[in-house]
């Protein structure tokens, strides 16, 4: 029975490949299997970072020992928002290709190994979506990334933040000021008594202006959080 089901599954996949030929999500050239997502040429464009950054001036923290004084968090981008990363993240968030999570999580895991953060000293959490937006999308991409990272390192993802305002998309806001006003005080700590004295890694997919990570970090800091790292797949300009 099991062999028959596998045979049917393979046949069905072949039919789908004929009707919908698998293509690289970035350059649209044909690839062998859609679960690869990228052709070899586009995959080779990806360059992983090897340091932490100041989110204000984007100095590498290997070159500067401190972040700008008014930043409550350190930025940890596994790479920068250049092709093929935009295509991967777009399909991850909006085309229901959740399997891309495996690939993006692999970038984050490899990056974390490069910068050698003592993860056991941090609480792993994520940028939450408003309940209505998560119901509409069907998943929270930041939660999926955080869960994959935590599982790989034998840690746990914990819900420390809730999104209490269903704010408009940040992509519709121009400039840091408008983006920060859009998400200002939109997060709330779930259990304030569990925050004080702890270090946090907040996982998200992309940081553009940094306003979302700033708002989330300020909420954690308000309740006594110590060191905060904003871990993202990519930093966009």
Can you put this structure into words, describing what you see?
The model has no long low-confidence stretch (mean pLDDT 89). This protein is of the alpha/beta class and 237 residues long. The chain is globular and about 50 Å long. The chain folds into two domains: 1-45, no CATH class; 48-235, Rossmann fold. The strands form two sheets. The protein has a four-stranded parallel beta sheet with strand order 1-6-5-2, with helices on both faces. A two-stranded antiparallel ribbon has the order 3-4. It has helices spanning 2-19, 40-43, 85-94, 100-115, 131-137, 141-152, 175-183, 211-222, and strands spanning 74-80, 122-126, 161-163, 187-189, 199-207, 228-235. Helix 4 (100-115) crosses helix 6 and helix 7 (175-183) crosses helix 8 (211-222). It is built from eight helices and six strands; from the N terminus they run ααβααβααβαββαβ.
In the predicted model, the low-confidence regions spanning at least 5 consecutive residues are none
Q: Please write the CATH class name of the largest domain.
A: Alpha Beta
What strand order characterises the main sheet?
Answer: 1-6-5-2
- Count of domain modules: 2
Radius of gyration: 19 Å
* Helix segment tally: 8
Instruction: Tell me how many strands there are.
Output: 6
**Proportion of helical residues:** 25-40%
- SSE string, helices as H and strands as E: HHEHHEHHEHEEHE
Quote the beta fraction: 5-15%
Can you summarize the main beta sheet? 4 strands, parallel
What CATH calls the topology of the largest domain is Rossmann fold
Mean pLDDT: 89
What distance separates the N and C termini?
Answer: 53 Å
């Amino acid at each position: 029975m099991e062999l028959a089901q596998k045979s049917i599954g393979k046949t069905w996949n072949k039919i789908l490949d004929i009707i919908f030929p698998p293509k690289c999500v970035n350059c649209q050239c044909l690839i062998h299997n859609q679960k690869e997502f990228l052709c070899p040429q586009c995959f080779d464009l990806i360059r992983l970072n090897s340091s932490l950054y100041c989110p204000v001036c984007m100095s590498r923290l290997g070159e500067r020992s401190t972040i700008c004084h008014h930043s409550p968090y350190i930025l940890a981008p596994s790479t920068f928002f250049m092709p093929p990363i935009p295509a991967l993240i777009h399909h991850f968030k909006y085309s229901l290709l959740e399997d891309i999570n495996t690939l993006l999580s692999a970038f984050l895991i490899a990056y974390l190994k490069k910068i050698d953060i003592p993860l056991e000293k941090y609480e792993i959490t994520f940028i939450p979506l408003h309940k209505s937006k998560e119901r509409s999308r069907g998943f929270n991409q930041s939660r999926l990334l955080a869960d994959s990272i935590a599982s790989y390192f034998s840690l746990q993802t914990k819900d420390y933040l809730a999104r209490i305002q269903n704010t408009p998309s940040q992509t519709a806001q121009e400039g840091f000021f408008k983006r920060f006003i859009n998400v200002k005080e939109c997060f709330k700590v779930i259990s304030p008594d569990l925050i004080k004295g702890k270090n946090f890694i907040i996982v998200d997919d992309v940081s553009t202006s940094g306003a979302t990570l700033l708002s989330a970090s300020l909420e954690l800091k308000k309740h006594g959080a110590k060191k905060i790292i904003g871990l993202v797949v990519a930093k966009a300009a």
